[in-house]
Amino acid sequence: MFPELLKCQTKDEKEFDRQRDKFLKQISTTRQQINKHLDQIEKETVDELNKQYKSTKQKMDEAKHKTQKGLEAVATWINELSSIESISNEVLLFQTIKVMDNKTHIEEINISELNKKHKIEFDPFDTNDLPKVLKSIGKISLTENQMHIPALQHNLQQIQEPVKSMEGEIQRTNSFLTSVLGSDVKIRNGCFVSGKRLLLSHFLSTHIYVCGYDGNDVNRIKLEHDPRDVAMIDDNQAIVTL
User: Fold this and answer.
1) What angle, rounded to 10 degrees, do the helices at 150-157 and 2-84 form?
2) Element at 209 (helix H, strand E)
3) Which helix (H) or strand (E) holds 201?
4) Are strands 197-202 and 207-212 parallel, antiparallel or unpaired?
5) Measured between alpha carbons, how far is 193 from 214 in angstroms, rounded to an integer?
6) Mind listing the pLDDT tens digit for each residue in 14-70?
7) Within 10 Å of residue 200's Cβ, how many Cβ atoms?
8) What distance in Å separates the CA atoms of residue 222 and residue 96, rounded to the nearest whole number?
9) Are the beta carbons of 159 and 180 closer than 8 angstroms?
């Protein structure tokens, strides 16, 4: 029996190590995927920044060009104004002044449109929120299931005593120690499940167990609170009071 147990333990240890290595690779892959996604977000943000910059820079260049043209127009008007003094015809002088006044009004409007200050802004992601956004790469959990060792299960079946009732002797066909379910397991109560299985509640623990009549093929189910009682609703559903 002990050689078989040692063999199973060695096999379980190798499988445990293999699982650790597998999940280490998965964690690394997840990290790479997160980095790839962050790189994509950075590229999109930079592209948007450059797009806005290029568009606004073009507007600024156009505004400077218009201002330069306005400056040249003013120099021309100064020359025209100096020639007004020589106009003796009052009607012609009036018409010339009106034309100059209209041009001045138009340029004042243009100056108002060109008199704009551009500012580029960036609202960065608050890195203090990063732990909230990425709480973890994944969740680590550990479960314990009973190893299936036929020789051990056979020996456990032999640990039984005849139970006598008033109607005569009743021989137990199956029995096992609760230690096969785990250390310090105390069963409060249980019920029969279809397929020759048992549903058992752990005394003062947040677990219930499903196992075979011989304690083999154990599945441990964790609950939020200590179970008080268990009962079957049908072949596929059970009710547990907490």
Assistant:
1) 120
2) strand 207-212
3) strand 197-202
4) antiparallel
5) 13
6) 989 999 999 999 989 988 998 999 899 899 989 999 998 898 888 888 888 887 877
7) 23
8) 97
9) no
